[in-house]
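Quick question: what would this complex look like in 3D?
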Amino acid sequence: MSEYPDEDEEFELMYGDELELLNEQENFNDPVSKSRKSLDFNTPSTSKVVEKDDNNPQTSKNRVNDDVGFDDDFEYISEASNGVIQSQTNDNGKRSIQDLFGDIDDLLNEDKINKKHKGDKLLEELSLIEHILELRKLSKEKSNALATRNYTTYNNDRDKYNISYNVPKYPFIAITRHDSERVYIRCHSEAFEKEESDRIIKESNGVSILGENSKKIWEGALKILSNEDNLEEVTIDVPENNAEQLWVDMYKPRKYLELLSDESTNRIMLKWIKLWDKVVFNRKPKIKPVKVEEDPKKKKFFQREQLISTLDEHGRPHHKIALLCGPPGLGKTTLAHMVAKHAGYNVYELNASDDRTVDAFKTALENATQMRSVIDKENRPNCIILDEIDGAPSASIEYLIKYVNGTAPVKAKKGEKAKKPNICKRPVICICNDAFTPALRPLKQVAFVVNFPRVSSSRLAERLMEIAKRQQVKTYQGAMLALAEKSKNDIRSCLSILHFFKALNKPVTLTDVYKSSVGQKDMQKGLFSVWEDIFRIERPKMLPGQDIALRNVTLRDRMNKVLQTVSSFGDYERVGQGVFENFPSMKFKDNNMENVCAALDWFGFTDLVSKQIYQLQNYSLGPYLQYAFVQWHFVFGSPNHQKINFPTQGYEAKLKTERQRAVVKEVMKGMTTSVRAYCQKISLTLDIFPLLLRIIVPTFRPVSLHLYTAEEKNELLKLVSIMIDYNLNYVQERTTEGTYVYKLEPNIGDIVIFDRSSKNDVRELSYPNKQLVAREIEMEKMRRIDLPNKNIVTNKEMKTPQRNGVPESSLPNHLQTLKARQVKGKTSPGVVKDFFGRIIKQASTLNESTSKKPTNDIWYQYKEGYNNAVRKNIKILSLK
Amino acid sequence: MPSNLLWADKYRPKDLSLLDYHKEQATDLKNLTQDGDFPHLLVYGPLGAGKKTRIMCLLREMFGPGVEKLKEETMSFTTPSNKKLEILALSSMYHIEINPSDVGHNDRVVIMDVIKNVAQTHQLNMSSQKDFKVIVLTDVDDLSKDAQHALRRTMEKYVANCRIILCATSISRVIPAIRSRCLCVRVPAPTEGEVIKILKNVASIENVNLTDELAKEIAVKSERNLRRALLMAEASFVNNIRQGIPKPDWEIFIQKTANVILKEQSMQSLASVRNNLYELIVNGIPSEIIFKVLLEDLLKPCDSSVGANIVEEAATYQYRSVQGNKEIFHLEAFVAKFMCHYSGLVQQMMEFF
């Protein structure tokens, strides 16, 4: 068990002892009330009261419980003691009655007792809760005197005897409450009232149950309280002397209550981390259900992301990771630390300064989750805070997700460990500035994402004022408000600026704040906000105490603002593209398109300059790029908010261009060399493709090939050969409807036809025709492959005699084979003879197998690496 | 065997003496090969004028029919940044043809690496008439400045082993240093009469009926681009001249775009024009051609004074688009400028009436 639970439990833990004490004290109180009541014998209800008091443990609990069901309990008690009431006539005093009661109780059947015991337990718990609630209320009234506290408790006590919801037996006055409920208030005799008032006076003088002690205790408590206050003062004041320390650290919130960030964010983080209690601390199943009930309401109220509070089979919350995102300087890291500490964890932080490779991540995670810090005497469990996670490599983040989900590969060391993967049993908080980093995408899906809202300027200004006061910096609220706004509510930079002013040692005024360029961070805005700044003319803000000159946004101011935004963003190319693609949809004043012309000239200018910069590395031109944005702002800017779309056109165009190039390249690659030698790429796209698409569609009769006339066959052959020349073919494809179509491949139609909306004049062949053409193309291709082979063979044949005039016997094997084939193909008689003589000689010298070969068109070839080592090649020609 | 080709490929002359037009130039080229001192050549001229045809004829004249036995090869090399690149080359025993601009801004590496390698080796076949190899570089005007500078040294250094024939559409982007190292041969487009003659000739061999009017129309529509003229003729015959002479789709598309511009001068029409321009650019239509065709169509309704202005503007923006990177900016700027001028003109007309 560790300390620092949430508020409810904190009380339970901290005041546990006191609680018991109080419990006892109350019981102890009862006799007092009884003694008081015993004075009032003449009233009819006396007997009941006495009896109730005597029924000690039960009644006291019932009484505490009265908020829940006062009436029922009341009746129950009266029922239980029914038998006793009759014997109540004699004034025996409490002891005898108690005895009597006990006896009777024993006489009753045992069921009842058991029932009562059960009831006791329930009541005990309820009473505890009641006490906590009451104590909490009391603790809030810090400054209230202890005496009054006693008094109030006493009053509460007394009310139970004097106020009733149903018609009591004592004399009463009926009163209707504000919620139209009847309440009956007891009427006391005058003597009793007097007695009572005397007693109260006496008590307030310090003569209560605790007697003299009560005063002492109270004074002691007061002293402690005041000491605590002093301590707080001291802790903040001490670092004042310490000039070394940054104010940011000095005024860091040290308690949950001091957090400056949005309360709902704080709450939800705290709630999330409390969900881990089950698995980490193994406690508290009772508060959870309360939360479950509360949650839906709160969610609706805050409109935040839903925190799923159900636990998984390991008792862990649904989201294992919390992801805090928001701009810098709002206190994300502080909140994470505070919350973790508050929930009783030891913070294990990993940030950008640490090594964040996958391996480093792995060790860090394992260390943090599976070990406990030994040095820390409190022996708290770790809570991992991964700061600046947007900078981590995506592989590490993926590992983190796997690890947390328990799917990370665990190295099987000795077989047994491999069986159950380690599951992460510690909360992990990730912090990032930019939630849209691509690396974080998978993380966002599993994590509980908490977007950090900005601190309100007024709240920040208040705090700044406080600090300024402490630091004796002379300033006023307006200046601080301006400061907060200037830094876009960045607490850290505000403090730094303030610190800086302190060093200057002069009062801070509004103009100082506006003029100073100190603390102007290089703030990275999102792309959209940069575009927004360009397309929107900001209306001047009316701030109290502002100079009149500052109220009008001059062109100069606008220019400076745009320049600053754009140059701090840096990626001119993308911003420019965004402006280019968005401006046609913007509404702006422009007569006769002159302004648009000017703006477009600037686009041309940026293009020229950026080419110089990025392609020719002439970086000295860089500074000129940003001025184009000023011009665009002047032309396209309007005071109204306008919808900005993310520019995709440029990117799409790039993709399409690549596709077009790929098609051309593919055609080029497969074109017959004799044709390609004369073709340039550009003439392919400009002249050949558009017209070729119309040439390759002659009209064919839809009959089978052997029915074609010779002319038609020729035409078909021509088409086929043209298509082969330009590497085109029809490829069968299955459409989504399940029908088959033949498509031109590579599809030059795609890059040739522009106007897809209107009907174009390009015909297409019918399906059977395409099929026919496709088949013929394949056939023709095979034939062509065959043809050059033969040519090569013959070529070699021609050369061999020239090349080696060496004696035949030294011929290598493969050459002999080639020659052998030549025998058959030879037609020219002059050469034939010459060769013939040689070959015959050769054949005679060689073994029989080679000499046999030429007689056959089929030969065998050994292919290395094939298991069916001998393959038979059959020529297409031989099949004909 | 070559009977099954496109007309444009089929009736391509294979020998210098068979060329149909620029016969004087052909004889000059022939004479050039006779002497031993064959220079580097820079052949330039518009598309479809027959640059490549002449180069191949020239090579054939020098090395014999062996140059037509072409084979494809993929040459690979590594850039200084250790990137592996591949480039397709066509080569015969005597020459190699490369388009270095295929690899974009890495063309310098191609020039340095590949060409040096080729240039450093001697001609293997001693029996050939010449003792040098020829390197044909196409699309020289697309070469980057770096590559061109790399080339100029290579040209001088290995002149003993190789000659370089450069092929370009226009020499304006070829650096003067290279121009001065080459014999520049301009191949002008054939005249309309020549185109008609060739078309008629082809038609008679192909045994199709080509009327004088049709031949004339094709010659005009092809803009004296002989390749296009032949393709057009063939396409119209395939389609039985039903739909008239087909025009390339991009040309029609640019005309449509021009109509949009003339119809309405507003931001909305500018936006739709932009889409069209993007479409043209992504399909590989060079911005020069877009400018040219667009301008022709836009000038039609303008009178001479406004027209002169607009032509000047077009020239300015086209120049910039060549200088710059993103054609779309300059094209659109031109369109906006035209809209601005034109709407002013229309307003004047309205006042006049």
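Answer marked as accepted. The CA atoms of residues 602 and 628 of chain A lie 6 Å apart.
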